[in-house]
Write a structure and sequence with these properties.
Layout (H helix, E strand, L loop, with lengths): L5 E6 L5 H7 L4 E5 L9 H6 L1 H10 L3 E5 L5 H10 L6 E5 L4 H18 L7 E5 L3 H5 L1 H6 L8 E5 L5 H6 L11 H13 L6 E5 L6 H14 L3 E4 L5 H7 L4 H19 L4 E4 L2 E4 L3 H21 L1
Parallel strand pairs: 1-2, 1-8, 2-3, 3-4, 4-5, 6-7, 7-8
Antiparallel strand pairs: 9-10
Length: 301
């Protein structure tokens, strides 16, 4: 399943939006129980999770749930969320490793109750406080379930993370680069290789600005993005999918190096650059990602 390119948020109390989300083919849908759900609709949102999960699984889309920050409400959220095919939990305002470990244990209990394989459900901590941002590596190390830290990439309209960190967000984003790079490195250093970035803070219909932010997250080392509007899914999937030209370049690189090995060489000139063994893992990953998404496109037609 991993890496996942696009995580589209859908308010869990609005079940009519799930079929609309499926039509734009995100890799994952996040059924949100937190900020996008009014208090009076929380119970209905939890009640919708079983059917929403089943619908997404049938369409080959990974179902995630954003629960509430660690509290008694989180326990109710997880109990409602764990069903066959459920892929993972996004834990907002994650502050400490203890919270991640407690969530790990809670998921283990409900996996057993539902007859699911132990460890099937992933955890994606979302630090939104100064403490959580500073402790991101410990959050990622706290459980083998953690697949990646969730970061942010904001346009001029800031939210919790900007306030916690103290920066004034801009479209250029220089003020956010340290934080974003830190979260990517913390996640990978802790063995959670799939950090994702939430992209927001620009007008929904400014697709050029969204593409600018999404491309920045890819270039900084995130492996996917969470997004709020269906029109942003195609952009995210395209940005995070190697192009045919990139795949051809790296396929040629691998072929050139294979020939070099047959000639007894450990380095070779390829399209003007010297390549050696250090370049091979990235080349293989690009070709594999391109081939995987080509197969996925063929299966959906």
């Amino acid at each position: 399943m991993w890496p996942l390119r696009s995580f589209l948020f859908v308010p869990a109390h609005r079940s009519e939006l799930v079929p609309k989300a499926i039509r734009v083919r995100p890799d994952a849908v996040v059924l949100d129980l937190e900020d996008s759900v009014p208090p009076e609709h929380k119970a209905a949102a939890r009640a919708n999770l079983a059917q929403g999960t089943a619908t997404l699984v049938a369409e080959g889309i990974a179902p995630f749930v954003r629960v509430h920050a660690w509290s008694d409400a989180t326990r109710d959220d997880v109990q409602a969320a764990v069903h066959p095919g459920f892929a993972g939990v996004i834990l907002p305002k994650a502050d400490s490793a203890d919270e991640v470990r407690a969530l790990h244990d809670l998921l283990s209990y409900h996996e057993g109750r539902r007859g699911l394989a132990h460890g099937a459900v992933a955890i994606m901590p979302l630090p939104e406080t100064a403490e959580g941002l500073q402790r991101a590596e410990s959050l990622a190390r706290a459980s083998t379930r953690v697949k990646g830290i969730v970061g942010t990439c904001s346009g001029p309209v800031g939210a919790d993370v900007a306030r916690a960190f103290g920066f004034r967000p801009s479209l250029q984003g220089f003020e956010q680069l340290y934080m974003q790079s830190k979260l990517v490195l913390d996640s990978r250093a802790a063995g959670a290789p799939y950090p994702i970035a939430g992209v927001f803070g620009v007008p929904m219909d400014d697709l050029a600005a969204m593409e600018t932010l999404i491309t920045r997250t890819r270039d900084l080392g995130f492996t996917g993005c969470s997004i709020m509007h269906p029109s942003h899914v195609a952009i995210t999937n395209r940005v995070y999918t190697p192009t045919a030209q990139e795949a051809a370049y790296y396929r040629g690189l691998l072929e050139a190096f294979a020939q070099a090995e047959r000639d007894g060489l450990g380095a070779v000139r390829y399209e003007g650059a010297m390549i050696d063994y250090a370049m091979l893992p990235h080349a293989r990953s690009v070709v594999a990602a391109f081939d995987r998404h080509e197969r996925s496109k063929g299966a959906s037609t």
